[in-house]
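Curious: why these numbers?
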Amino acid sequence: MRSETLTLVLVNLAGIMERADESLLPAVYKEVGAALHADPTRLGSLTLFRSIVQSSCYPIAAYLAIRHNRVHIIAYGAFLWAAATFLVAFSSTFFQWRVACQGSYVAHSQLDGIWSMALILFTEEFSLPWICCTSNFLIFNEGLYVLGKVAYKGKDSIYGMENHVAVSRALNGIGLAIVAPAIQSLVADSTDDNNRGTAFGWLQLTSNFGSVIGGFLSLMMAPVTFMGIHGWRISFHLVGIISVTVGILVRIFAHDPHFPDGGADISDQVRTKSFHSEVKDLFQEAKAVVKIPSFQIIVAQGVTGSFPWSAMSFAAMWLELSGFSHGKTAFLIGMFVLATSLGGLFGGRMGDKLSKRLPNSGRIILSQISSASGIPLAAVLLLALPSNASTLAMHGLFLFITGFCISWNAPATNNPIFAEIVPEKSRTSIYALDRSFESVLSSFAPPVVGILAQHVYGYKPVPEGSEDITTDRGNAASLAKALYTAIGIPLALCCLIYSFLYFTYPRDRERAQMDALIESELQTLELDGWPLRGEDSHVELEAKELYTEEQSVIEMDYEVRNSLDLDDDSDEKILLYRQLTFANLGDSTAGEK
């Protein structure tokens, strides 16, 4: 098997385990809620804690992917999320997380100690990722303590009961955050504009297969007890073990095309920039990406478009309250995830085909169809179908149709467009920034669903030991209404926001192509031995706000004639061609303005 093919296979395998890990907890909300005596609001807060930490770590992922070997980052991220998954499985029985209860002073002193060593250790392969991860963990730990005290009115005992699970989920978010942008940028670098949507469709398909594994495994094992250990805990252990195995395989066999010699750090090849200058360059690159209009629009729609997917973490709980058994619930969730997998592959292929026929609008049209179709389909699924186990076939059918139709946006539009509107070197940054911005707000979806269900639609927590079926059915209806509120409204906004891409996407794509052409031309001049630096020649490239509406100006002034053999007919032709090329670029930029 070729090295590139093996790398893509292993990267997709890592994507499978990433999604499997994410889907474990939502699938057993009911069992975890019973173990912690937690209502939907608190259950949703567990996912919120993980998502907040995960979002805050995406910028770190961008830095790591630029400086370090991306396959190594994926491997170490797998090790980290596996360790956190083990902690969740052990929580409330073997470990009591008390570090957050030590208060602000300890957290600050630990942070000071960590960052005082950063400048000494940052050249080590492991140091920077673990410095960042540990620091984010301590920041979150302190914040969790304060939020817990406020939310539970100063009751340390209640906070301590759930702290260990929440902190473990936060650590889990760090591992997941540093992996996702590296995977996406590797896929983007391995494809071109004509097949990139299909490649992202395959990535979505394999990743969703991981969601099936995680959700199905935890649901099927939830009612089982082995040697006194609850089945949902065993499922967490199994996913953790497999994640470690995948991380080892990726670390040994996968290869990053930016590191053909297998180096672990860019400093193995070039040691010219200081840590401070690299961080400064990263912020400048992020600033340039954020200024791209199409990026702003896709992030805006992504915030609303991701909200329904986060809200769907309550789908398993809604089905169980409706009367479906663990096995039937696992089957229905599996049908939905299978549909989103096939829908992603279909959407990616259709996006590639439409982009050839309608290069400026094809991908956008497809995404608007996808987001708009989810509104009536979700209404039928959540509000029209009866809440009882006798409608398994109808629930399965509408879950499949809904999942197939609403899953086109990322592979068909968002991910391919991101790769087209920035240079290749900025792809990891744009994917990391997108995940960061979108995840911050969409992570509030589970708590919002819980609050709506309890305080707006009348969800009533069932007392411990009660088996009141009537209460369960009423709670299922309340949860369904809350889910539709968190799905229908965001999808409508998502469809509307996509409309602005018709005006910005063509211009941003052409600007990125022009930037790539200029960079390629300058590199060619250097390779040909033309004097681009020094006292005898001067080349000035002024790109004021390259990704905004302002004009890019290229000024070239050659004072040395001896370096060029103008008597040579071929040299004269080459010079004329390049002068015309740069002139055309300047004219096209001025025309855009």
In short: The two ends are 49 Å apart (CA to CA). Strands lie at 225-226, 229-230, 537-543, 552-558.
